[in-house]
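Exercise 3.2. Students should predict the tertiary structure of the chain below and write it as structure tokens, then compare their answer with the key that follows.

Predict this chain's 3D structure.
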Amino acid sequence: MIAKYGLSVIAVFTFLLGVKAQAEDTDPNGVSTRPLWELSAVAGGIYSPDYPAADKNSLHGLALPYLIYRGDFFRMGRDSIAKGVFIENDYTELNVSLAASFNANSSENNARRGMPDLDYLAEIGPQLKIKIGELYGGKTELQLPVRAVFSTDFGRIDQRGWHFNPKVSHERKNIFNSSIDMSSSIGSSFATKKLHEYFYRVEPRFATATRPAYEADGGYLGSDITLGLSYGITDRVRAYAGWRVGYYGGSANEESPLFRQKVNSSIYVGFTWSIYQSKTLAVSN
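Answer key:
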């Protein structure tokens, strides 16, 4: 139960981090103003599809403490759950990072009723960032993550193939000279056959009159656009909200009986509260 709860935290935290907006990193002289580490609390909720191209959304939410760390190599709580940075300069960054997502109850999803539940998913792998620079008053990056995907019910762990999610992200701080930061991204997803099977395969033993057996293929999974906003309520409390739209037309498994609709959307809200900050400042990165 503890492990399951812990991964739930990671999943919610991942969506909050999707906003990626934070307080100013440096002062006018370019010196870091951020503490090396912070002990914070996060609370959030997300209403999202059970799986890509599903026709049912589920609500997840919780509140727990978490740690932000801004080391030269190891970092937590910036634009991923945790990552190790191997190369970083004015033009590129190469890191290994983590991501995670929620489970889904098949008994509560008409398309999957009678099939096994979808477990929590965790991803880990390298990511190359190409820093395009300042465009339209904000920071723009091309992000190229390639991650191995694993599922778990906390009784076992199964490898589910690989996920490639290239995207362009844009971040602007203090829009309209306010305390509101904004981030957006547009990207596409590609996955190996094993991950597509996890979402779209129907084994003969689970086939019904309305759900024929189906063998999934690897390839294009879908595309998405994300918009996130954050607002600094105080120096230590920040509120977040975001919206994501996924489009799955042309997916490699559009013919699967589990592929129910071409457009999905998610919304999420939350806040972070920095309870304690170290006196030691982080090196600007």
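Discussion points: Residues 2-277 form a domain with the Outer membrane phospholipase (ompla); Chain C fold (CATH 2.40.230). The chain has a mean pLDDT of 85.
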